[in-house]
């Protein structure tokens, strides 16, 4: 089984190298391996068996990954939970997956005094009982887990509705990791600061670099200063973040006094990279950039654009291409009937390969809806260029149909963001009696930004065709985004 093989290989090759680091401690590859075996026995003594679902409710810390690997070794499915969810939302997920146990930080568990009846075990990761778990466990034969056994239920970010549980197996993690590492060609001495939470599909990026023997630095939550400190303290070579985090890093006072010279590569994904942020980051950081395009349902990151392929900031006119699909996976664009489109024509991106999910947990209807002749529908609109690179245009659900013409909100957002007074922008469709639907723009201005709706409309008039221009502009304090940096447009639609 892939996660077990990963640990065994790295214990053999790098026993004394740090595998995981958080704000409290670090563990070597030998310690990580041995603790996982110990913990698997301890969890088995608590009655957790192959096929059981175990919820994990915690901020990022070493014990989270130790639990994931130990549960996978048992053949139990780990179910990461977004710790910012409300009490009913957490209860709903645990009830839907039939969780038999929950492992979590004590302060987060205290928010959920009542759990579904299926939950028999409740244990705090930050208490002595968890640390002692397995140290006096009985010796038992651990099950032989295959790559096709499900080992996790990862939930989608729910930007458009209720979160869905994505069932993945060990073979999915292996396929994505091996394909990605062929493209990324990692060195032996990578230290990666992980700015993204371990409770959704973005965690596969960390698992992938762990497979290469990297040291992964975890933080209990992203703040610019915390991330900057982590890079300097651990001489990090890589960072994994979303574009909004990079903007906050560059704006932080400490960014100009912190030693970031160790950085070789910044991995970014989950949302388009604003061109002004990219230009400033290239100038100030002097490192390479790697784009990550992925989706939980297809195993995580399946397309990348490496540092050598990134354009110079002055050469970018629209947006940076996502890159090429990793070896072992396939991606193409299709029309409404599922027929493959020629290069350059916009259609929905679909994906297939050994990294894709087994299906949505106990939801065959939703699984059928997202599957098209064996391909997974991403819901992203894009095209493939002559070099085989995928370019994204927008989300299929976000496209505005104005009198029969397709209007892509992301194009309007990019135009607004070229105005120096605009910090952030989001565009949605609003009903219109004459045209059916027209664009409505929400704008966040810079603190010293001096502008109004009329001036912004005049600005985009020079950049957009008449049918693409916003009908109305409203100013707000913050564009709602989930922890992955994606705009939650359901909170903006009128």
Summarize the entry for a quick read.
The chain is 29% helix and 26% strand.
List keywords for this structure.
Rossmann fold, GMP Synthetase, Chain A, domain 3, 26% strand, 26 strands, single chain, CoA-ligase activity, 494 residues, alpha/beta, AMP-bd_C_sf
Give your account of this protein's structure.
The protein has helices at 2-13, 29-45, 62-74, 87-97, 106-109, 128-132, 170-184, 203-211, 224-234, 243-251, 275-285, 364-370, 409-417, 453-461, and strands at residues 18-21, 26-28, 53-57, 77-80, 101-104, 121-124, 150-155, 165-169, 191-194, 215-218, 238-241, 265-269, 288-295, 300-305, 324-325, 330-334, 347-352, 359-360, 371-372, 375-384, 390-395, 400-402, 405-407, 422-432, 436-445, 472-475. It is of the alpha/beta class and 494 residues long. It has two domains: 1-396, ANL, N-terminal domain (Rossmann fold); 399-491, ANL, C-terminal domain (GMP Synthetase, Chain A, domain 3, 2-Layer Sandwich). The protein has a nine-stranded mixed sheet with strand order 2-1-10-9-11-12-13-14-15, with helices on both faces. Strands 16, 17, 19, 20 and 21 form a five-stranded antiparallel sheet that branches. Helix 1 runs antiparallel to helix 2 (29-45) and helix 7 (170-184) crosses helix 8. The chain is globular, with a radius of gyration of 23 Å. The protein starts with a helix and ends in a 19-residue tail after the last strand.
